[in-house]
Amino acid sequence: MPPGSRAARLSRRAPVLGHLTIDGRPMLSESGSSTPPGTIPVTLTVNGQERQLQVAPWTTLLDLLREELDLTGTKKGCDHGQCGACTVIVDGKRINSCLALAVQKDGAKVTTIEGLSSGDLHPVQAAFVEHDAFQCGYCTPGQIMSAVALIEEGRARSREEIREHMSGNICRCGAYSNIVDAVEDVLKNKASSFREAAE
Ligand code: FES
Ligand code: FES
């Protein structure tokens, strides 16, 4: 396959084949009998919607989300588990989606930044806006997803613990202080709403 050819360009999308075979040729039909060779069926619930896909075994969850499902809110930074830009929530836990193969997550529930709220901003999103907790915004979806999961984990009660438990989310703009302000704000509001509910 000559580099730069149409087939070569199409094969770059081969990791997940909803409508193309691995070498770029059209599928025979949309039925199960036309399953592209070398791919594996994977079912994911992404932002509440079940998605049935045929994926190549080497496809990362990050590439699946961005390249095939057009959920580009999840960012690719290092692609090596070093920056946290690709953080999503899988079955309630935050993970670096660049380090997870899609086939490993068969049957999982995945939440991306696009699925965090369905109308009003999620409290963490609102707090990031309120505290101006970003500059370029590239790390922001990952920071927010990480913060949402961290708050659910209940492991952070102080600024130091927020910093520690979000240390895998790198911000090259250095907006850390405002990010911690935002997360701390949500934690305090959550604690006070729990107190009010108990009274
Ligand atoms: S892109 Fe996944 S950790 Fe950097
Ligand atoms: S806001 Fe630019 S990298 Fe974090």
TrEMBL record:
Gene3D superfamilies: 3.10.20.30, [2Fe-2S]-binding domain. InterPro entries: 2Fe-2S-bd, 2Fe-2S-bd_dom_sf, 2Fe-2S_ferredoxin-like_sf, 2Fe-2S_ferredoxin-type, 2Fe2S_fd_BS, Aldehyde_Oxdr_Iron-Sulfur, Beta-grasp_dom_sf. One of its GO terms (molecular function) is metal ion binding. The keyword Iron-sulfur applies. Residues 40-116 form the 2Fe-2S ferredoxin-type domain. The keyword Lipid metabolism does not apply. It comes from the Bacteria. Keywords: 2Fe-2S, Iron, Iron-sulfur, Metal-binding, Oxidoreductase. This is 2Fe-2S ferredoxin-type domain-containing protein. It comes from Methylobacterium frigidaeris. The lineage of its organism: Bacteria, Pseudomonadati, Pseudomonadota, Alphaproteobacteria, Hyphomicrobiales.
